[in-house]
Specification:
The structure is a single chain. The chain is mostly helical and about 150 residues long. It is about 65% helix and about 0% strand. It has a single domain, classed as Four Helix Bundle (Hemerythrin (Met), subunit A). α2 runs antiparallel to α3, α2 packs antiparallel against α6 and α3 packs antiparallel against α5. The termini are far apart. About 10% of the residues have low confidence. This is C-type cytochrome. Keywords: Electron transport, Heme, Iron, Metal-binding, Transport.
């Protein structure tokens, strides 16, 4: 049957459409960026923790990508809370602290990129930088994300 190969794509599209978040909305845009950040960070951490094989060039590229991504989601937080946001109200009430934590992440990813300049890369040297990035993400989530 001609429609059978199209079925998985149609189902996937329907599931995405049903999540209720417009991909062009500020919420949709920042969620997409955060998902990319998570996937990239998981790959970097996976290489350092032995879950994935360590690939020097892939690590360098991932660190650079994470650094670029770390600067993007903040512009998609509107000045007033959206109804469907999973962030706590405190995010909009404590903007200065939110900006501070965003800056911590950006500084962490920049330091990670700087650590990838010296070759050959040593996982033991990179691990504290990845941990700093992970800690920055966790700190912001603890204060502002409603799980």
């Amino acid at each position: 049957m001609i429609f059978k190969p199209l079925l998985p794509g149609v189902i996937a599209l329907a599931l995405v459409a049903c999540d209720g978040v417009d991909s062009d909305s500020p919420l949709g845009r920042r969620q997409a960026i955060f998902k990319q950040m998570l996937a990239t960070s998981e790959d970097l951490g996976g290489m350092l923790r032995g879950r994935l094989g360590f690939d020097e060039q892939r690590f360098v590229d991932g660190a650079a990508r994470l650094d670029v991504l770390s600067r993007q989601p903040w512009q998609h937080f509107p000045p007033v809370r959206e109804a469907d946001s999973s962030a706590r109200d405190e995010l909009w009430q404590r903007q200065e602290r939110f900006r501070q934590l965003a800056g911590d992440l950006e500084r962490g990813t920049a330091a990670l990129v700087a650590a990838t300049v010296a070759r050959p890369l040593e996982p033991a040297v990179l691990a504290p930088h990845v941990q700093r990035v992970e800690d920055a993400c966790e700190a912001c989530h603890r204060e502002f994300r409603a799980y």
